[in-house]
TrEMBL record:
One of its GO terms (cellular component) is cytosol. Pfam families: Phos_pyr_kin. Its EC number is 2.7.1.49, 2.7.4.7. Gene3D superfamilies: 3.40.1190.20. Residues 11-254 form the Pyridoxamine kinase/Phosphomethylpyrimidine kinase domain. One of its GO terms (biological process) is thiamine biosynthetic process. Belongs to the ThiD family. Pathway: Cofactor biosynthesis; thiamine diphosphate biosynthesis; 4-amino-2-methyl-5-diphosphomethylpyrimidine from 5-amino-1-(5-phospho-D-ribosyl)imidazole: step 2/3; Cofactor biosynthesis; thiamine diphosphate biosynthesis; 4-amino-2-methyl-5-diphosphomethylpyrimidine from 5-amino-1-(5-phospho-D-ribosyl)imidazole: step 3/3. It catalyses: 4-amino-2-methyl-5-(phosphooxymethyl)pyrimidine + ATP = 4-amino-2-methyl-5-(diphosphooxymethyl)pyrimidine + ADP; 4-amino-5-hydroxymethyl-2-methylpyrimidine + ATP = 4-amino-2-methyl-5-(phosphooxymethyl)pyrimidine + ADP + H(+). It comes from Thermosediminibacter litoriperuensis. This is Hydroxymethylpyrimidine/phosphomethylpyrimidine kinase. One of its GO terms (molecular function) is ATP binding. It comes from the Bacteria. InterPro entries: HMP/HMP-P_kinase_dom (IPR004399), PM/HMP-P_kinase-1 (IPR013749), Ribokinase-like (IPR029056).
Length: 267
């Protein structure tokens, strides 16, 4: 059995965060484990409360997992504050996982800040150099690169800038731009574009969390980095196609292995 760990925030509504990550791991046949960084009171409409777990407790969860159940891949999502980022960096240094996927979560779909603005620098300095791949959406790529992004050429320039912080690859996700759902992969040598048709739905809660956990699940299964990203793009496309019209706001994507396997989709 392959093992994957998510270090992220809890979404009580079940659509994003830890809950989306564990559902994604299960759908890939990977055993999922979790380090909870923050508890959010959240549904499809809003985030109505956030309470961070103490930095020491974040570190202890990492220690407990690695000392007994060393994961084949790690995904990092919401990390909230500078002190939590430092605890995660400490854990990564101590236990040295090779395959780390960082989803630099900053703002929820409902517009709530999930990373303190003064923690962006810590994220860049402490976590980017310790990860294999980082998966920003357009606003996150703008914040990390310090440039505005209007189209695919800008996505490539931003990816180059983000690489300079020391990660080994970047996927800039284009879900927030007009037109096709086009993502740009860059590994420091070559750019590759991953494209699917934009699915017309408002139910996209958890797309970013699901995509990055699918990358981690595929890495845990032993696929190379680009194949892991390509398969994750297929998975998220199917999960959005089957997204659920539940709740009064932005509904969640759906994780269902049979849907994925039978779709025969090739992105
Ligand atoms: N409507 C859509 N149709 C098809 N693919 C989409 C759609 N919206 C997003 N995607 C794809 O989903 C993946 C996640 O991208 P997105 O930009 O939505 O992430 P995100 O903004 O980080 O998500 P979140 O708000 O959950 O953090 C990318 O591969 C993107 O291209
Ligand atoms: C806990 C959590 N993590 C990530 C996201 C993605 O935006 C969210 N809405 N909530």
């Amino acid at each position: 059995m392959r093992l994957a760990l998510t270090i992220a925030g809890s979404d009580s509504g079940g659509g994003a965060g830890i809950q989306a990550d564990l559902k994604t791991f299960s759908a890939h046949g990977v055993f999922g484990m979790s380090v909870i960084t923050s508890v959010t009171a959240q549904n499809t409409k809003a985030v109505i409360g956030v309470e961070d777990v103490s930095p020491e407790m974040v570190y202890l969860q990492i220690k407990a997992v690695f000392e007994d159940l060393p994961p084949d891949a790690v995904k990092i999502g919401m990390v909230s504050s500078e002190s939590i980022i430092r605890s995660v960096a400490r854990g990564l240094d101590e236990f040295g996982p090779e395959k780390v996927v960082l989803d630099p979560v900053m703002i929820s779909k409902s517009g709530h800040a999930l990373l303190k603005p003064n923690a962006v620098e810590a994220l860049k300095k402490e976590l980017l150099p310790r990860c294999l791949v980082v998966t920003p959406n357009i606003p996150e790529a703008e914040a990390l690169s310090g440039m505005s992004i209007k189209g695919v050429e800008d996505m490539k320039r931003a990816a180059e800038r983000i690489m300079s912080y020391g990660c080994r690859a970047v996927v800039v996700k284009g879900g927030h731009l007009e037109g096709d759902a086009l993502d740009v992969f860059f590994n420091g040598r070559e750019f590759r574009e991953l494209k699917s048709e934009k699915i017309c739905t408002r139910n996209t809660h958890g797309t970013g969390c699901t995509f990055s956990s699918a990358v981690a699940a595929n890495l845990a299964l032993g696929y190379d980095l680009f194949t892991s990203v390509r398969l994750a793009k297929e998975y998220i496309t199917v999960a959005i196609k089957n997204s659920l019209n539940i709740g009064g706001g932005v509904g969640p994507v759906h994780h269902f292995y049979e849907l994925y396997r039978r779709s025969g989709l090739n992105v």
